[in-house]
Amino acid sequence: MERSFKKEVEALKLGEGEIFRGEGILAVTKALLQSGVSYVGGYQGAPVSHLIDVMVDAEALLGDLGVHVETCTNEASAAAMLGASINYPLRGAVTWKSIVGTNVAADALSNLASPGVIGGAMIIIGEDYGEGASIIQERSYAYAMKSAMWLLDPRPDLPTIVRMVEKGFELSEASHSPVMLELRIRACHVTGEFAAKDNRRAEFSGVNRLPGPPKFNYARLSHPPVTFLHERLKVEERQPAAQQFIRSEALNEVFPGDLADIGIITLGGLYNGVLRALERLGLADIFGNARVPIYCLNVAYPLIPEELRAFCAGKRAVLVVEESHPDFLEQAINTELRRADIQTRVLGKGPLPRAGEYTVDVLRAGLAAFLHDVKPVGLDTQAIVARQREIAQHKPAAAAAVGELPVRPPSFCTGCPERPVFTAIKLAEREIGATHISTDIGCHSFATLPPFSLGNSILGYGMSLAATAGVGPNMEKRTIAVMGDGGFWHNGLITGVASNLFNRGDGVLVIMQNGYTSATGLQYMPSSKASRQGGAAGMDIETTLKAIGVKWMRTVRTYGVAKMAATLKEALRSAERGLKVIIADGECQLARQRRVRAEDAEKLKRGERVVTTRYGVDDEICTGDHSCIRLSGCPSLTIKPSPDPLRTDPVATVIESCVGCGLCGEVAHAAVLCPSFYRAEIVKNPSVFERLRHALRRRLLPISANPAKAAA
Ligand code: SF4
Ligand code: SF4
User: Fold this and answer.
1) CA geometry: angle at 28 spanning 204 and 73, to 5°?
2) pLDDT-based confidence at 3, cuts 50/70/90?
């Protein structure tokens, strides 16, 4: 990847008693090394990309400890990696974004959980739920339940997070079951400190290898008939062993409060929000001391019936704080209490909403409703309700005082090489009409937003071509599937291309070849020009597609809008049946800028010539119809008041953030727009000839009011 994590790597070296300061996800990384892991792997995705990125940058340190790091091609390969812990006393951890990554990994996870593990196996999942999430809104809880994996959900506090990682491995080994550790976005980015321990070298690892395989044991395979035995073991031995460990190690926490006839049972990850909401209602101080007793489930699954009964005994009512649906926890609590004939009222969905993230605002309203309903002894609930109303009213008043804020929808970066492809699709559609566009996960999905608004379905990462299999044969026009190179290697090659060829399918596939898995933070992938080991891995998309039998293939530079539009039209109209692949080639602009800026800075230091390109709009020629803006959507292309007092329409203008990708000029040419765009080159450390030429021009020509034009 292009970004360096040198500072974070230094934090991983801290030893016994030194104070670690930083983000939650980095604390997890350090905790893994303190736990003596032998291997780590994963597939990048927010909010846990940082973990694998830092591990990759820390390869030298990990090498000393004998820890193997694998940058997996998808979550299924990461989950399968945990198979090392089935037969061997090896601790390992893998990571990905959930729910989507867990969906991809599900097959391997089931086959891992069935025989169980000897070495501690941990899956660190970035629970991408709620505000800021970039995926479908589901929870990972169901996977833990169905496969009998234990779900840790630590409260967002660094010492707790670190303890749960360390204890998580022990739990996994004590119960012979894989453990999931879920971190919501806020937990990944919470900052704090903890007293570090020395990193631990595993008993067996890359520096002290296992002498050989174990004696053949059929029970270690997830294969019938032994899978029937595994199911019994999960229920009769592993789960009780896990519950015993969770209880004896006090992984869940009880925080007392004086309003003892009620309580709150919260998932650990939501604990900070609950406390903040209580504090806003005047029921907690800023140090975390609350008046309402709280049972904090740092282990979301399984539930510990004895602890639950002890917490609820003598309480008239409890509020269960568990966001989204189904209300697994609330149902389980109801069942356990009724079984034990404890008549504590259980409220959850009702005062709290059935769907959506439990932000502090939502929790505060839910808590006020709960307290109003159950009326704990010693609390003026009318005052609480009034306080809630007062705070709730404050927000609209504040928003009104600020006035309307401009919306900031997500979009392609300035100069993104993927944007021109969608301009070309728009231009092609002008001529041959609209067709079904199957889109995918990745930066290119920004094209589903204005000004392009292109795309009819998203079925998962690398799934766009597969998602046309049922549409194409039922549609007059050929379909277009758009996929990134990241998606291609993640899943698209087999799920999409091989399946299409195998079924003698048709349709157009556009593969955005930008060189990185860009949307997750510019990680390298099989066809990147470089790898974490240095040179390229030696795989490329074109050769791969040819090898599996794709006949119709074109590679087109993305910024060549006219050529891209012509190639799309050719692919859509061709009488030849079969899959048509267009490789849209253009390096991710974000990666390019990071590289080029650093290179240019070095050149300037050495006094060498550096040229940067900018585009501009001649406001005397601009007609003010803004077609260029609608067709490119570049954030650097905007409007300004017309300098002509006789024209009231604003004119187009290019602002300082332009990276000179040239798309606006290409669009003006391909769409036959007004000829108002010009290209300027800014030369730093010019040659003697360039200085002389510039001096001559200044003598002969009047200096323009526009400095960019003057530089041209
Ligand atoms: S990260 Fe790269 S590919 Fe993604 S929008 Fe930005 S420039 Fe485009
Ligand atoms: S050249 Fe045009 S499209 Fe490219 S970054 Fe500059 S303003 Fe945007």
Assistant:
1) 70
2) low
